[in-house]
Write a structure and sequence with these properties.
Blueprint: H1 6-35, H2 51-57, H3 62-93, H4 98-113, H5 116-126, H6 138-163, H7 166-174, H8 179-207, H9 211-216, H10 224-233, H11 237-266
Helix pairs in contact: 1-11, 2-11, 3-6, 3-8, 3-11, 4-6, 5-6, 6-8, 7-8, 8-11, 10-11
């Protein structure tokens, strides 16, 4: 802590709570409360029920729960693809000149600089005809998510590479290790905490991606963010809140697993 005075630290903690609760915590608590509410006509919900979650777990709405699993698998596939592409590009950019590296940075940041609906439209146009016919398939959704989150993986790994002490790599090379061995046994293990953090960020962003997904999802598969939007759009706010809590729970479970991997990697 940079502030050593106890009263100053206490004041900072109070300021943090004052800013955190209404901006971050309160909206999430409202969604959780709405998912259990039977009606809400005042400041607080006037009744509690599990009906919205029972609707998710039974009958035709069971498809929504299965869709949450498919959504998580889509996000996992997109985050792994983005992490692979971003790591490879960051390692390659490390050996390039300054101008070429800036060009590569701009190329990876371009999907983030434009609205995600533009990325969705571009993929829809590009892959609507043979030989690359992906329109109407889950693969095009995974591809869109990969394009949108690769920039974050690339930037995370690039930042980690700038902080990496080159002495480890030089020592291994001086002992006769081949470049591939140095990369696999020295460099990547040192980058593992940053790689797991980038994977978690990519997964969380992919789980909540809506704009491009709305344009690309196949008719026989409704991703969970689209279901949340559709439920709230037709006025079923409490059912949409239950779906949103399901989405948050699935995301948090994966992120907790990633955080455990990252903690173990930090102490290697």
């Amino acid at each position: 802590m940079l502030v050593h005075s106890r009263p100053a630290r206490r004041a900072l903690h109070i300021l943090f709570l004052v800013l955190f609760l209404p901006v971050f915590a309160l909206p999430l608590l409202v969604i959780v409360a709405a998912s259990f509410a039977s009606s809400w006509s005042g400041t607080l919900p006037s009744g509690a029920t599990l009906k919205h979650y029972q609707d998710i777990a039974h009958g035709e709405a069971l498809h929504a729960l299965l869709t949450s699993v498919l959504t998580a698998l889509t996000a996992l596939a997109a985050s792994l693809a983005a992490l692979t592409a971003g790591t490879w590009a960051a390692l390659a950019a490390e050996k390039l000149g300054r101008r070429t590296r800036r060009l590569l940075d701009a190329l990876f940041l371009l999907p983030v600089a434009v609205p995600s609906v533009v990325v969705g439209l571009s993929l829809l146009v590009a892959f609507s005809r043979p030989p690359f016919l992906l329109n109407g398939t889950p693969q095009i959704v995974i591809l869109a998510h990969t394009v949108l989150v690769t920039a974050f993986a690339y930037q995370s790994v690039t930042a980690a590479l700038t902080r990496l002490d080159p002495a480890y790599e030089q020592s291994a090379a001086g002992l006769g290790a081949r470049p591939a061995y140095v990369l696999w046994r020295v460099k990547l293990p040192l980058l593992l905490p940053s790689l797991t953090a980038a994977a978690g960020l990519c997964f969380a962003l992919s789980m909540g991606e809506l704009s491009a997904t709305m344009m690309l999802y196949p008719p026989d598969w409704l991703p969970l963010p689209v279901q949340v939007f559709a439920a709230t759009d037709r006025g079923a706010l409490f059912a949409g809140a239950a779906l949103a809590v399901t989405l948050m729970a699935a995301t948090l479970l994966v992120l907790l697993g990633v955080s455990r991997i990252r903690t173990k990697a930090s102490y290697r």
